[in-house]
Amino acid sequence: MDTMRERFASVTSHLLDDDPRLAVVLADIGVDGFTGAARRHPDRVVNVGIREQLLIGVGSGLALTGLRPIMHTFASFLVERPFEQVKLDFGHQGVGGVLVSAGGSYDWPSGGYTHMSPGDIALLDTLDGWTVHVPGHPDEAETLLRQAAAAGDDKVYVRLSVQVNQAPRAVDGVRFQRLREGRRGVVVAVGPMLDNVLAATEGLDVGVLYATTVRPFDGAALRAATGAADAADVVIVEPCLAGTSTRFANDALADRPHRVLGLGVGRRELRRYGQLDEHLAAHGLDPHGLRERIVGFLPSGS
Amino acid sequence: MTQTTHDKPPRTTPAAGTDTTTTTGAGFAQLPGLMSLMTGDEKHGPAATSTLDALWVLYDRVLRVSPERAADPERDRFLLSKGHGPMAYYAVLAAKGFFPVDWLPGFGSYDSPLGHHPDRLLVPGAEIGSGSLGHGLPLAVGTALGLRAQGRTDPAVWVLIGDAELDEGSNHEALAYAGAAGLDRLHTLVIDNSSATHGWRGGIAARFETAGWSVATVDGRDHRALYEAFTAPHPGRPHAVVARVEPKGA
């Protein structure tokens, strides 16, 4: 199976052939995947060098002329470093584009904290109008990338990761999917967290929702799932900063008593290298850590 | 540095190929009167008047833009990056008929589209919103690339920055890339009123030249010199015009 990033390069290269409105902007990261596309479309595959403010500014400039830019680099250099460009050059200028990140929270743990971006979605949540996709499988990434490319002048963020689930799900780019029914509460698994959530809740009487498009947040699905449970007790398990989506769940359940536990990546810098699994465990996002906290939070079964 | 100030526009006829825009009939001599209609941003008065002559020459004789062509994809683009003190910009846009002169007195008020920094969604004729320094040149690079990618090789892209704005590192990302990419439809107008806190040792022009740009440095109050610098050929290279005006606070 190819990685999400490899799928991004191959799918986007084909999209460039078909849609003259699309353009890709890179900043030396991910250039190899676009070698062929750059040869075929030298004016619509632009590598600005190691210049991330320019990466976003150029994307916006392309959009001002009517093109649909797709900008790509690691999340820390795509969202965090040029954040004011994202805020102003897209939001304030009133143009659209697609940000496609790699690296996520700790895809390259041995690269250390400089290449970790658990806060990317939380940062985008300070802005208006960004659609956020968090695929959990390369096939889902392809579906969501195609939707993002075709989404008119929408502002779309696609968070790619090397952390993947075993099997793809049929995602629609809008709704959460109800995978399990249960009475003790509802667990929302975001993107790559699904397999660990399914393992952690095995045998528990809890509902499981699968979320790959988290902004807009599918509050209706959450309300329906909690309505089927005994109480509106919700656990959200995200591959990004813990609590990123908590307030959206609170807003969705504002008219009823509810409790929300937000699980995800901790704020504290671990200063550890190693492997992805070790970081998942350190943040309590492995099946064991998740089960312990989910069971501790939900009312005990009768 | 000797500066000459022209009270009137030079009596030269527009060069062949330049459009005559639809105007209110107002000329350069009327601009100070239009600017005086806008009050409340006196702090940025020097910033506003520093750009006045260069803006007028561009809009009067160089840019192929007009209210009728505001949505024409083949129009020239002018991006005001230095959004501080936009009074001269608003006066020129009003004089050229982009919006009514009677918008000017509302400058900065809640119901006015004319803020102390321009917003492209509110100001007819404004290609970008600005105010945060260092955004315009990267946007202009992207605009030049976008036009080229669509086969629109005719429109010129202009961006106005200040010498102090050049402090922002984002400009240096953009000017280095633009020179390397040979974006010959890109033009940067640097209004130099010596306001950069640490100055530019070796000169502003040298930054652009080293990066592969064509550069002209002129008296920013001399309309004829500005026009000649604006229209100088620069095949294969982006072009910068450094327009020097009185030092801020002088």
From TrEMBL, chain A:
It holds the Pfam family Transket_pyr. InterPro entries: PDH/Transketolase (IPR051157), THDP-binding (IPR029061), Transketo_C/PFOR_II (IPR009014), Transketolase-like_Pyr-bd (IPR005475). Residues 2-168 form the Transketolase-like pyrimidine-binding domain. SMART domains: Transket_pyr (SM00861). CDD domains: TPP_PYR_DXS_TK_like. This is Transketolase. It comes from Streptomyces bugieae.
From TrEMBL, chain B:
InterPro entries: THDP-binding (IPR029061), Transketolase_N (IPR005474). This is Transketolase. Residues 44-231 form the Transketolase N-terminal domain. Signal peptide: none annotated. Residues 1-10 have a biased composition (Basic and acidic residues). PANTHER family: TRANSKETOLASE (PTHR47514:SF2), TRANSKETOLASE N-TERMINAL SECTION-RELATED (PTHR47514). Residues 1-25 are annotated as: Disordered. Pfam families: Transketolase_N. It comes from the Bacteria. Residues 13-25 have a biased composition (Low complexity).
